[in-house]
Every structure is written in C-alpha cells, then in structure tokens.
Amino acid sequence: MIKQEKANEIHKILDELYPTTPIPLDHKDPYTLLIAVLLSAQCTDVRVNQVTPHLFAKADNPSDMIKLEVEEIKAIIRPCGLSPRKSKAISDLSHIILNKHDGIVPQSFEELEQLPGVGHKTASVVMAQAFGFPAMPIDTHIHRLAYRWTLSTGKNVAKTEKDLKRLFPKDSWNKLHLQIIFFGREYCPARGHNPVACPICSKYGRKSLF
Questions:
Q1: Residues of the chain with CATH 1.10.340.30
Q2: Residue 83 CB: number of other CB atoms within 10 A?
Q3: HSE-CB for 187 with a 13 A CA cutoff
Q4: Do residues 117 and 89 make contact, with C-beta atoms less than 8 angstroms apart?
Q5: For residue 150, what is the DSSP state?
Q6: Tens of pLDDT, residues 114-146
Q7: What's the rounded Cα separation, in Å, for the pair 133 and 135?
Q8: Where does CATH 1.10.1670.10 sit in the chain?
Q9: Quick one: DSSP state of residue 168?
Q10: 139 labelled catalytic
C-alpha cells in the first residue's frame, strides 16, 4: 500500500473513533489557552487542568498577571514542573502582550514564537485552537505515532509536521492532531503497547512492532 492510501485509511479510522475532538486543555480565551499550552510542556493535560483554575482565579489576563510576583506564579504552577522557567515566561510574555500587542494575543506564528516560552508547537496549538488557522501541532506523541505508522521517518518534529501536512487535507489538520493524540492515549501508548490489538498498528504499523 502506498503511503497516501495508508494515510487515507488511517484518517477514516480516526474519524470513526473520534468524530468530535474537544480541546483537552481548559481555557476561556486565547490568553488562557496560551498559558495552559505553555504549562503543558513535559506535563499532562490533566495536571495542567488541576493547576490553571488556581492561577486564573488570581490572573486570567495579561493585566492581572503582571501584578503577580514571579515567585507567586511559580508557587502556583509548581505541580506542572519546570516552574522557574515557566513562571518567568508567563510573566515576561504577559508584559510583552500588554506593551506590544495592546493586551491581545497576536494571531500570527511569527509574533507568537517571539514570545518567551512559546515555541512552534505551542504557537501551532494557539493558532489552530484559538484562531482556527490550519496548523498541525506536533508533540512527542504525534511524532511517535507518525513514525510507528510509517507516515514519517521520525528524524525530527519539523520533518514529521511537513510529512503529515502533505498526506492529510489542510482542512482536517486542526481536528486531526487532536484525534491522533486521543488515539495514542487510548490505543497506542509509548509503553505497554500491544500492536496486535491496536486498530491502526495491527494494519499499518511498522513490522518491527511485532
């Protein structure tokens, strides 16, 4: 089977299993989504959703966030890990959004990626989920599954993003990246994975999995 045919079949399976894709991180606007995605680095969505209500109760917008000391932010977000770096980034990006963008989260990859603590993956999530711009955020899970399913070489996340964008329709990207994440959690984990029982790996996975 050629790679495009395989991608089409995988897309059908994902659509059948996950016809709807709720955003895993609780938020109410682009700013709170941006903060939640930043916190999710090397942390589970469940843990982030436990922490953000405490943070957003004190500051759910840039104006209120800059009133908090970095140490106070750090204490609240400590359960998410990397709190020294993340707390400084949250404070610094809030100042920049206020001073440079009139308090509004910018709607471009270039401007988002200039914010402290915001890489391409975080910018992609915000562009896709907050602004509806077609994007394919590649986290470690999507990178891993694209390699398992032989849709990409697995060399790096930039190559995986390029490969998946070429294989799947542009209007499906925003939903698809969530579908792959949901599938990975339910059927295709990094550890303890049974490829025989996996709806995709059993048909389209690398032979080395078996």
A1: 30-129
A2: 20
A3: 20
A4: yes
A5: T
A6: 999 999 999 999 999 999 999 999 988 899 999
A7: 6
A8: 3-21+136-209
A9: S
A10: yes
Question: Is residue 73 pLDDT above 70, yes or no?
Answer: yes
The answer to whether residue 45 is catalytic is no
Is it true that domain 3-21+136-209 has CATH number 1.10.3720.10? no
Taking the complete model, does pTM exceed 0.90, yes or no? yes
The CATH code of the domain at 30-129 is 1.10.340.30
- Write down the catalytic residue from 15, 139, 155, 171: 139
Structure tokens at 38: 């930043």
Tokens representing residue 109 in the block: 């990859």
Average pLDDT over residues 78-98: 98
Q: Calculate mean pLDDT across residues 172-195.
A: 94
Q: What is the per-residue pLDDT across 18-40, written as a single tens digit (0 to 9) for each? A: 999 999 999 999 999 999 999 99
Neighbours of 208 (CB within 10 A): 7
Catalytic residue among 121, 155, 162, 171: 121
The answer to whether 148 touches 188, Cβ cutoff 8 Å, is yes
Please provide the average confidence, as pLDDT, over all residues in the chain: 95
